[in-house]
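Last lecture ended with a question: if I hand you only a sequence, what can you say about the shape of the protein? Today we answer it with a concrete record. The protein is Amino acid ABC transporter substrate-binding protein. Below, first the input exactly as provided, then the predicted structure, then a couple of comments.
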Amino acid sequence: MKSIILAALALAGAAALPAEAAEGDTVKAIRARGELLCGVSTGVSTGMSTLDNQGNWKGMEVEFCRGLAAAILGDASKVKFVPLEFRVAFTTLQSGAADILARTATWSYSRDASLNLDWAGVYMYDGQGFMVAKKLGAKSGKDLNGASICVSAGTTSELNLADYFRSNGMKYTVITGSTREQNQQSLESGRCDAYSNERGGLAASRTAMKNPDDWVILPDVFSKEPLGPTLRQDDARFRDIVAWTLNIIIAAEEFGVTKANVAEQAASSTNPEVQRMLGKTGEFGKMLGMEQDWAVKVIAATGNYGELYERNLGSGSPIKLDRGLNSLWSKGGLLYSPPFR
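The predicted structure:
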């Protein structure tokens, strides 16, 4: 009920936003407002956007928004987090009640083409799978013929699930929930035999179970789930700023620029591309209407991609999710930034 109320308040607040947000100059609206409006989950997306008991937002998507606030406003703390259930996330963004949606949302053809939304890159390559109780004895998704499966309603996960069972000639009973938390509770109570979601989400859900060791994520990966920052399709310049904020974080890892050494690298690096990225040479900040050292501010706020992943999703977090495809291209993954040139 709390999350529904929060979402309703977010929608109601759209009418109070500056007119510029609806007219396309999002950066102007953010600077006039003095804060970035970042749509996140309702606080249960462990590792991505979580609200702790002290009222602090944490997670990879949360930190990305802080890095974007540092880029645009020069202050990573100038973010207002807007908690949203998935079923209202896109409409809230479309209404202008959020500048950016950092709540996990898969980039797909239909969403891109028909919802007037845009994705500014991918900060996590994921894929859908299943989580089941170990006592069920299932070794793969092929063992789930006739099973009841919990999945979030109205998501790509629900559609992928139907495709998986249809293509394998299997039957299942779908049990939909409105939130990840509801699906976790249904699985734990025995209402369903398996829970299907992105594997990163399943790993996060497992940490919230009463006895995490009683649950296993099956090895099947049966979809592509590119997750990234989602925007309205009305402001190409804002999309560029968001995309290059992500590129800065990725390139920083490749070049060995960290949260701890970014100031030193900005002053002394002899790498020509690092010099351009960090504002020592060229006018790359000016090209996007940003400060010359905006990349320094981003990295000082978030660290590089490897640091961001490690503390929120990797071995330094409760989730302990291998990077896999989210490794740099030079290490067998899919991540790299276009050149700063």
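Comments.
1. The chain has two domains: 2-124+227-331, 128-223.
2. The radius of gyration is 20 Å.
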